[in-house]
Amino acid sequence: NEKQNKELKSNNKVAEDNISKSSFEFLGIIGKGGFGKVWKVLYKKRKMIFAMKKMSKCKIIDKRSEKSIKAERDLLSIMNHPFIINMHFSFQDAEYLYIAMDLLTGGDLRYQIFKHKIFFEEQTKFFISCIILSLEYIHTNHILHRDLKPENLVMDSKGYLKLTDF
Fold it and tell me: Phi, psi at residue 42, to the nearest 5°?
């Protein structure tokens, strides 16, 4: 178990000191959640684009969700895999918690099903492979995803599905 934790922590996350809101240019809102908004952001120092959850501390406390938000951040901080959403930064200020993650621009699987109505067998096998590999990774590391559904499988720009919403 200790070996797995070390392997998980030796991922390719960007390690930077003094990350704050001013480290990013907020380019536009790309989604809304129960605790705030999701923004498309530019990390100025490295010219990298991310999706950033900006969550209100007041809303988190009002909904008594401190433990689940902390658990999600803790899990994302140790995981790194091509078929899960990967966190690159997390930080906070007086009012908000921020989590910068991979920007996935292909829409979720629910949207894709609605848009295409039908998938060829080859496409379906590809999607299932992405899902199986993501679940295999998290299960091997003793993590259980309790909300597997099409809305929590999001496509990147190349058509790969990634598991989200931990």
Answer: -110, 125
**Cβ atoms of residues 26 and 41 within 8 Å:** yes
Question: Tens-of-pLDDT digits for all 166 residues of the chain?
Answer: 444 444 444 444 555 668 999 999 999 999 888 899 999 999 999 999 999 999 999 999 999 999 999 999 999 999 999 999 999 999 999 999 999 999 999 999 999 999 999 999 999 999 999 999 999 999 999 999 989 999 999 999 999 999 998 8
* Catalytically active residues, by annotation: 147
Torsion angle, alpha carbons of 121, 123, 129, 132, to 10: -90
Q: What residues contact residue 137 under an 8 Å CB cut-off, 6+ apart?
A: 79, 81, 83, 84
Q: Rounded to the nearest 10 degrees, what angle do helices 66-78 and 2-9 cross at?
A: 80
- State how far Cα 44 lies from the chain centre: 20
Nearest CA to 85 among 108, 69, 66, 115?
108
